[in-house]
Amino acid sequence: MANILLTEKCVRSCPYCFAKKHMDLSDDSTFLSWEDLIYIIDLFDIQGTKHISFLGGEPTLHPEYVDFVLYSAARNFHSTTFTSGIMSVKKLEEAVKTFKKIPSESFNFVCNLNHPDLSSKEETEKIEKFLTEFGQQTTLSFNIFDIDFTMEYLFDYIERFNLQRHIRMGLAHPIHGQKNKIIPRSEFKRLADKLISYVPMFIEHDVAAGFDCGFPMCIFNDEQLGKLIRIERGGDRRAIRFVCDPALDIGPDMKVWSCFPLSGFHKRSIYEFDSVNEILEYYKGLHLKIRQKKAGIFDECEFCSFREKGQCAGGCLAHVLNDLDEAEENQEIET
């Protein structure tokens, strides 16, 4: 699946943002062109992949965003828009009117919903207007960056706006070579306890859960892993997994990279590759080389049978890269 950045301009400034370095170094006035969108869709169409994601920044800021969704549907692609839900009145009205022309199953939204305390009254009003219109096609996404997080408001939004009964949970990852707000690894066990405390609420509201990449399996004990199974849905590709794979993000300048936390690591032009498989194999090879130097975010990852069997990737690769950089710096100091 391609993650296509329509723009790097954003409407928020989240303290945990692991795209921050990438956007700070980019020109947020640049928008993906029609020519480049068609090139990307052609590339993935040849591969047989019929699902793309529109990202940003805030993808709905792109002047042609609505038409991009229409075009992808006309090409028999399903598009997922990752959004804050903060849209202008004009853009929301355009989307509501225009998306009636295409089958509802050809597009959906993932709304990254911060706690209301992090949003202004105006932003909250815009989010709620968006959810009123597109709630049935929207899944909530929740990024964990503080050990004292709360999730009650997510279930409230699901009930109020008839959202998809699924919450995509992401763990805020470090930015390779830069600082952002994350939960330190020493607190991961507490993080697991806090997450598990919400299992009864997931069950009560009949809401499934899924993990984005980078969660290490070992932070949960066997009893907790059993409880997590109870808030999965069978066959759901968004289920609780402990992976760290190349996501393939493509910027408006047609540069491609493995994922946002690694956006400054071996970024290449998409035109250097002849196929999607070639891009994937390139970044999978880089991941493997790094894991051969350090298996995971904990020392125990080196001999973990669950990692060897592919049940856990060993945590986010950005953690591993930062560890390797620190070890190299310490070695230089000692010598």
Q: What does the model show?
A:
The protein is of the alpha/beta class and 335 residues long. The chain has one domain: Aldolase class I (TIM Barrel), CATH 3.20.20.70. The chain contains 12 helices and 10 strands. It has helices spanning 20-24, 34-47, 65-74, 89-98, 121-134, 152-161, 188-196, 199-204, 222-229, 276-293, 305-308, 317-334, and strands spanning 2-5, 51-55, 78-83, 107-112, 138-144, 166-171, 208-211, 249-250, 255-257, 268-269. The chain has a 10-stranded mixed sheet with strand order 7-6-5-4-3-2-1-8-9-10, with helices on one face. Strand 3 (78-83), helix 4 and strand 4 form a beta-alpha-beta unit. Helix 10 (276-293) packs across helix 12. The protein starts with a strand and ends with a helix.
Largest sheet: 10 strands, mixed
Total E-strand runs: 10
Which fold name corresponds to the CATH topology?
A: TIM Barrel
Gap from first CA to last CA:
45 Å
CATH architecture: Alpha-Beta Barrel
Going by CATH, the homologous superfamily would be Aldolase class I
Percent range for β-strand residues:
5-15%
Which class of secondary structure composition applies to the elements? Answer: alpha/beta
Shape: globular
Order of helices and strands: EHHEHEHEHEHEHHEHEEEHHH
Could you give a short description of this structure?
Helix content is 38%, strand content 13%. The protein is built from twelve helices and ten strands. Strand 3, helix 4 and strand 4 form a beta-alpha-beta unit.
